[in-house]
Amino acid sequence: KPALQRLSHYLLAHYQKGTRPVRDWRTTTNVAIDLMVYAILSVDEKNQVLTTYIWYRQHWTDEFLRWDPAHFDNLTQISLPVESIWVPDILINEFVDVGKSPHVPYVYVSHHGEVQNLKPIQVMTACSLDIYNFPFDVQNCSLTFTSWLHHIRDINLSLWRQPELVKFDRSVFMNQGEWELLYVLSHFQEFSVKSSDNYAEMKFYVVIRRRPLFYTVSLLLPSIFLMVMDIVGFYLPPNSGERVSFKITLLLGYSVFLIIVSDTLPATAVGTPLIGIYFVVCMALLVISLTETILIVRLVHKQDLQPHVPEWVKHLLLERATVLLCIRDRKKFSQSRMQSSDVSRQAESNDSTANLTPYGCEDPRESGAAGGTRPTLAFGGRAEGSVVLQGVLRETTAIRQFLEKREEFRDVAREWLQVGYVLDVLLFRAYLAAVLAYSITLGTLWSVWR
Fold it and tell me: Where, per UniProt, does this protein localize (predicted)?
């Protein structure tokens, strides 16, 4: 017979796979385990499930699988069916579903009784996923290997390799997906349930980081562009109705953008990612900007019954605020105010001095002196002409009063336009400061997380 067949028959002829392979029951079976992360298949934030593909290895000593190589053609290693020998019942505590793992039917056995069981496993485990920092989040998920039945006196666990070698081993990791493997930490501990026997467990912490480039391009940049356009919209004239329609269009576009990206954002019942709060605040800023625009347009809208600007408003906005805001043409405001006051004073003086007689612009004394020398027949014609002149004077006075009233309305509208312009600059700079502070805060947080 070939050496392999003779050795396989020698080892398995009287082997009892139902009992732990030790000659003295007090002897502890030490199982050394090791894993290498091959791929991160999916991260389900909603169901808090991590799916990974790992290469798992375990190693233990079977005292009933030993032989002398000299009797078997110097054969020192043989592969045996895994169903024919004893295998430790080591499971992963975080298992939530049976993955599609390939079945490996054999294990390697050396002549000293050392058994090596190497197999790939698709692991679907529960993990507490924190999405607050999305898309710059780092997740730390644990894989806890332990014997489900045997306590630490029967089966003890240890690391196959040194922790430093396990930590930075990315030799088999396929790193072209959404997630990047940072490192794998290992930790051994004992635990007990309700004062029962102690159990050994080996924890592996798989630390992964999301690659944020896709989300930065598809989520952050469009939002930033829309906010920049909103800021640029402040340079439209405040008395123009186009600014209102422009900002309403921006608000509508941002609402459509949020509907599109709502499926991209991870959804959990625990919390909301910061980027979702960022989108909501950006929407609130757009609403505030639209409200400010409506206020300014309402303020500078020309109305015939609009009252004069109060003096305290003129003092605060047209004098103090222009100095604080460094408005270069603030002298024009004061000049226009002086001109409007001069026009009103001139109109009042014209009203007091325009005492026209029924005889037109002639002095009554001159008309009286001339009347003594003119013929009596001319007096009747002069009386008829005076009636016509009175009608012309009334029409001229009405036209002058209308023009003066219209000029007064124009002055009032001009004053409100100046107030609206200064107030628009003030609110724009406050809005710009709020947007900049908000952007710097978020940029600082995300840079720290990176």
Answer: Postsynaptic cell membrane
Structural contact between residues 416 and 306, judged by C-beta atoms closer than 8 angstroms: yes
Give me the amino acid identity at 147: S
Closest among 420, 422, 431 to 296, alpha carbons compared: 420
Indicate yes or no: pTM above 0.90: no
Q: CA-to-CA distance for 418 and 336, rounded, in angstroms?
A: 10
Distance of CA 437 to CAs 163, 432, 441, 443, 444, Å? Answer: 44, 9, 6, 10, 11
Length of the chain: 450
Task: Give the CATH class of 3-210.
Answer: mainly beta
**Residue 149: phi, psi to the nearest 5?**
-115, -45
Task: Read off the pLDDT of residues 117-150 as tens digits, 9 standing for 90 and up.
Answer: 999 999 999 999 888 888 888 999 999 999 999 9
- Looking at this protein, which amino acid is placed at residue 17? K
Tokens matching residue 91: 């499971």
Backbone angles phi, psi at 373, to 5 degrees: -100, -15
For residues 63 and 109, give the distance between their C-alpha atoms in angstroms, rounded to a whole number.
11
Percent of the chain at pLDDT above 70?
Answer: 78
Domain ranges of the chain: 3-210, 212-328+396-449
DSSP 8-state code for residue 418: H
Pairing verdict, β 155-159 and 114-126: unpaired
Q: pLDDT at residue 312 above 70?
A: no
User: What is the rounded end-to-end Cα distance, in angstroms, of the chain?
Assistant: 64
Write out pLDDT tens, residues 316-330. Answer: 666 555 655 666 554
Read off the DSSP letter of residue 270: S
442 exposure class (CB count in 10 Å sphere: 0-12, 13-18, 19+): middle
Sign of CA dihedral 24, 25, 28, 31: positive
Radius of gyration of the chain (CA): 46
